[in-house]
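Pipeline run #58 for the internal structure catalog. This entry was flagged by the ingest filter as a single-chain record with no existing model, so it goes straight to prediction. Upstream metadata was stripped on purpose; only the residue string is passed forward. Reviewer on rotation: M.T. Logging verbosity set to normal.
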Amino acid sequence: MSTVDQPETFRYSLDLLKSYSSAALRNSKALLDEARLLLENRHYARAYFLAVSSIEETGKASQTFAAQGRDLSDPGVTAKLVRSTESHSEKITAAFIAWINAGDNVRNSLMSAVDLMIALKRGREPAMYSVVNRISGELFEPIEVVRPTAARDCVKIAGNCLAHTETQLSVQNPAKMTAAQDKMFAMKSGKVNELLNAEDFWRYFISRLENNDEDLAAAVIDYQTHYVAKKRLYVDSKEE
């Protein structure tokens, strides 16, 4: 189901999300097994591609697991979840969440994972399709792009993402999201990124932190409502 043909009345049920998450994990395992077979037979480009596909399915399992704690009656939540589970980039990012959280130092784990995530997102298409560099005019085939080491590393990464996600989903319950968290989730990614890159927002958030309010999602929604929507800046309001 794509965002284009999604019926306006469609909503995920809790049971459907549970089944979806389990199915994604099963498919991730199958894709990983197939990637390992291709690797053993030196089909490095295809092994890489299937390993990335396994990572995406692991990410989808993580996304649909987390969604079980959201307000499923909210059409905005449904629409965003559909978009997220169709986004290669967002699925790859979600696949690393359990692995990152399993480390003793989440910050260091995140910094180490960022480069891996970027490489996987860039390498997915070249591992399956021949492409032309539009700047140099060079033609590249998958067999030339994906080296044996890259394929082996990708298969290992897929295995780690899957193992950590399986563990998390088996020992934890989905966190119950607040109304503000659901509203932030439903916002378009571009708007959220634009807001989080704005210096004025961080000045606003710091003022909330000074009052012991650490809820980032609530700050995002309140700032959107009281400043962005009204085309005002927080710093200007302080001078009034």
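catalog note: The beta strands are 131-132, 139-140.
catalog note: The chain has a mean pLDDT of 88.
status: ready for reviewer M.T.
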